[in-house]
Task: structure prediction
Amino acid sequence: MHTLTHLLLVAPLVLTINTAVADEKTYDFNIPAQPLASALDALAQQTGLQPFYADGIMAGKRAPALSGRLTPLQAVQKLLAGSGLVYTFTADNAVAIKQDGSAAAKVETLAAVTVLGRVVYDANDPYNTDYNRQIASTATKTDASIMETPMSIQVVPQAAIRDQQAFRLQDALKNVSGVQQRASNGGTTGGADAYVVRGFELGFRSNYYRNGIRMQKSSADFANLDRVEVLKGPASGLYGRIEAGGLINLVTKKPSADPYYSIEQRFGSYDYYRTEASATGPLTQDGSLAYRLDMSYLDSNSFRDFVVNDRIFFAPSLNWKPSDRTEFNLSVEYMDDNRTYDAGLPVTGNRAAPAPISRTFVQEGLVDKDSYWLVDFNWTHSFNDNWKLRNGMVVVDGDAGLQEVYADGRAALNGDTPRGAWFGSLAYDTQTVYLDLTGKFKTFGIEHDLLIGGDYYHQRSVDHATARAMDNVNVFRDMPRFNVQAAMAPPYLFNYIEDNEWFGVYGQDEITLWDKLHLLGGLRYDIATFGSGYSDQNLALASDAYDDIEETNLSPRVGILYQATEWLSLYGHFVESFGANNGRQASGKPFDPQTSTEYEGGIKTSFFDGRLTSTLAYYHLTKQNVLTPDPSNRSLNVAIGEARSQGIEWDISGRLTDAISMIGTYAYTDTEVTKDYSGNQGKRLPYAPLHSGSLWLKYDFQQEMLRGFSVGAGIYAAGLRYGDTANSFYDDACARLDVMAAYRFNIGKTRLTAQVNVNNVSDTQYYIQRASWSNNPADPLMAFGSLRLEY
Result:
């Protein structure tokens, strides 16, 4: 706008308003990088703030992307950062902008005012130290405020991941209530993990999503990870076929037009070495094209005998904004992961065998070699300020060579157990395509945030392997060596092809009445196909035996939330979900697919002007059509099984003061097998303790002499956990203590952070359970150090 126009807009405000600016009201901003003048106009439209300035001083200047919950003052500061312009607030809704130290824009201003306010970090700021995130996309596929969303969704932000030196998914998920690790490769390596949420398993090769897209591969690297979002409860209303407990979504870092570079070296117990490097910045003078490159290298042994992990990860990405309304994103990931398969220890009696926690069934040199390529391309176009189209595709192609040795069943009380092996290969690929249209509009004064979309998903895996009985060993003694070449030799008797494919369409409307009442309604229709073929001779015969089953399902969800005040929301929802395929009956007729139903109600709070948020939820979740053995023929199944989980979950995160940050969780998870012919009715579901919780606190010293120092500590506790549905074995209640200390200081324009983390200070021994033949000892006392340089 011209100076005169701005002055005319501001004049009435200057004459009538006598109070200072910088009130504490905050707004959820999502303004993309663009010319500074248009960014200020977008700011004015959202907040009512009126900037005025002289002609020409905006020429050639661009504003960085602005996102997160900020006051108008903080938004202006970020938009003008590095522009050479300064500002003065003249009234509640007016701000004068001029050249720093120049007389080019002589604007008469009112008397100076005192600006008061707290620091609210940009969510995309790499230096962000805030544990609290107020916006998440997983629950609605839109950037919705958590306080206005009638679902339980928790976010583990980059700040917590960094403070805890997390590099495995299990390290981040310990900060979320109701989430338990079901299985792991053990030791310091991480890898092919599975998780239980609200008492229900999420599965091995579909246990997480990447930016809302289902991943088949079983591991992820944290080098390009921004945050972890966990949506509790069934999520078929938006995501199609999914397990009942919830959804784990990994959100990756995006390219930025603001230059940032970092390199970090970590080192720790059991020869753990990890190097991470990141770089992002503009490729063009106007910042419309930006790049990002994230890399990591991991070289680690383990407290478990002969368990190693070598990993290379490489993730370049580009962001191009040819106009203020159109954006293109391209990202690529490559991982080469060599990791020992560690099945853990078998059960003796009703507990994991009391062998040394270092004892494994493998021998030196055996590793699973897993590598994949991922390509993610998407684009968005905003027709105007209210309507936007989003389209994209994700392709993953991977293969693995498998060299796996394990206890082949329970061990006798004296420790004797058969040892088995699995050698072969696995090839997997996925293709996902999606199209979304979002729009904001009003009908009779009622605000609507509409989402209409569809997606196509196809996943194929091909197994070509041999399963062999190796020898008889004793878990209490050192393992004898065996002939690897003979064990790997043909014939390969397991040849299996599997396809999961579905096409889904969905609609969702987020309705706001009187600025306080929020209604959510959604519906998804899926056409899903499951196909498989098996042969004990070769893959060609497996292909000849291939057969598929088609199923359809309608998944509704409705929710209501009343935001009584800015700091208090009450919510409830009802959802139905479409779960795993159940295969065919002996007659050849398909079983009904697994389904689930959930009722949930809760309270969300936001204290200290949004610095500290919490969710308290009660839920009742039932999973139907679970396969159980047929009582008339134990070799067959019937789909009458049912399981129920109900409980209370509480999550709280953010800042208690400027110096104290915290994450706290508690879960009461009451599970039960409610229908079953095999004698398990009334038993608890495995892996989920009745009580679990955690508390992590970090203190940043504010005193001048100690500024830059921070210390933290966390305790993580869980009650008794059963290892199978029959409740035939268990692991005792446990608690462990983690601590950290860090010192951050500047060297010129760079920041150097030295940090030490010690996990399981108490050296508590407990197990990550999987089955009677596989229970991984959890990490003992382990120390990690790091040096990180940022500039």
